[in-house]
Design goal:
This protein is of the alpha/beta class. The protein contains eight helices and 13 strands. The protein is about 40% helix and about 20% strand. The protein has a seven-stranded mixed β-sheet with strand order 3-2-1-4-11-6-12, with helices on both faces. A two-stranded antiparallel sheet has the order 5-13. A two-stranded antiparallel ribbon has the order 7-10.
Length: about 250
């Protein structure tokens, strides 16, 4: 079974569209959806979920509501705890789907299950994945957090998102990618054109937070956590890829 874990905060219209896409394009068998309500304040999040669970039933829908707004990492971790799938897909509710991407993912994982999959892997210098360590400028490839997938075994070994360090958002996808590298897992890009991140939604209540200040603070936390290991990880990646761009699905 494959579990799609989808957290949301308010904006039920996005989650409803997301579920409609899953209903339209993915096979009902061998699929379950895990909805994590991140302490939404709008009533239609409850009524909308209930409608999908009781009246539509195209696939099993598990539902959990956080007692307080915990953010991306905590919501995804809570979803993983109740998911039944052998494969976990951490899926943003503002993804727009145009076709069944599951065969592509299944083929990739059948080739090598000991990987962390991102539909988009940022292997190029993107600013926040660039670091100066020991006099050397390095770039850390990472799986962009809007779509990350792996087997349940890999997820258990990685240990989930570090929301205790990074809070409600930012750098948690970079962090989990580095932890995957540390454990010897590759980061692999799915690069499916059937799913696109629309950048419309949020799993957290961000309006009350100075986003840039929070991002800068999390960068400091990330460097403090990994600075003594980033150089070694980069050397390992360069050797493993033998000149190829890290993160490519080849």
């Amino acid at each position: 079974m494959i579990s799609l874990i989808i957290p949301f905060f308010n904006r039920w219209d996005l989650t409803h569209r997301c579920l409609s896409d899953i209903y339209k394009f993915l096979p009902g068998e061998n699929i379950e959806v895990v909805l994590i309500n991140d302490a939404s304040t709008e009533a239609d999040c409850e009524t909308g979920t209930a409608w999908w669970q009781k009246d539509v039933k195209p696939f099993p829908i598990l539902y959990y509501k956080n007692k307080e707004n915990g953010g991306f990492g905590k919501s995804m971790n809570n979803g993983a705890k109740i998911a039944n799938g052998d494969v976990l897909i951490f899926y943003s509710n503002d993804i727009v789907m145009s076709g069944n991407f599951i065969p592509e993912l299944s083929q990739l994982l059948a080739k090598d299950g000991n990987v962390l999959v991102g539909n988009e892997v940022i292997y190029y210098p993107g600013g926040w994945n660039e670091f100066d360590v020991d006099g050397k400028h390095i770039v850390i490839p990472y799986a962009n957090g809007w779509f990350i997938a792996c087997t349940k075994e890999v997820w258990k070994n990685i240990g989930g998102f570090d929301y205790e360090t990074f809070g409600r958002f930012d750098y948690e996808d970079m962090d989990i990618s580095v932890r995957a590298y540390e454990l010897g897992y590759n980061i692999v890009a799915l690069n499916s054109k059937k799913i696109v991140h629309a950048h419309q939604g949020s799993t957290v209540e961000t309006l009350r937070i100075d986003r840039m200040a929070h991002t800068k603070q999390n960068r400091i936390k990330f460097i403090a956590k990994w600075a003594d290991k980033l150089t070694d990880i980069t050397i390992r990646l360069e050797g493993k890829n033998d000149g190829k761009r890290s993160g490519e699905n080849t």
